[in-house]
Amino acid sequence: MPDKFLSHIDTLLIKYKNKGIIIDSNLLIYYFIGSYHQNLVKNFKVTKKYGIDGYKIIRDILNLFEYKITTPNILTEISNLSNKIPDKEKIEFYHTFFQEITIFDEVFIPSKEVFENEKSRKFGLTDSIIFHLSKNKSYLVLTDDFELCKFLEFHNIDVLNYNNLFDILKVN
Questions:
Q1: CA-CA distance, 35 to 69, in Å (whole number)?
Q2: Which residues are CB-neighbours of 14 under 8 A, at least 6 positions away?
Q3: What are the helix (H) ranges across the chain?
Q4: Among candidate residues 79, 76, 99, 100, the one with its CA nearest the CA of residue 90
Q5: pLDDT tens, 16-50?
């Protein structure tokens, strides 16, 4: 199974290398916190479940793509989650955060446009926008949200489930 799964991962990475990748909010804040200070990953409520090795996997995956896509909705969620960072570290974290977002192309989709599609109404706004942006095979999606992953797969959208990816890559 791992070899077959790795082959599938390789196929997706090659297919979307020049198209782009969208990373869901939880994984993207994980990336930003890991970029700021890897020790904070172990202590921050949102990221401590992942550990430091997973940050390196996300960083390496991002480096493979010419386009790294985000949305104002994803960045707003990250900003809200990062309010839980200890005050003594916030200023430096925000400095890193603002530096790191420069590698991303921010795509805006009006909320009313997204919710015109009834399929999009299954999830909140951020996940619905991810669905909307990826539904035409425009971008690969990386998420740890099992329900979103199942939904995207059901709609024939290419997605990598971080949890499966981490388990496979950790073994190899």
A1: 17
A2: none
A3: 2-16, 25-36, 38-43, 52-64, 72-82, 87-100, 111-115, 125-134, 146-154, 162-171
A4: 79
A5: 999 999 999 999 999 999 999 988 888 888 888 88
Domain harbouring 142, CATH code: 3.40.50.1010
How large is the greatest C-alpha to C-alpha distance in the chain, in angstroms? Answer: 46
Q: How many domains does the chain have?
A: 1
Domain with 156 in it = 2-171
**Contact criterion met (CB below 8 Å) for 20 and 67:** yes
Beta bridge partners of 77: none
Residue 116 — pLDDT band, cuts 50, 70, 90?
confident
Tokens of 172: 């190899």
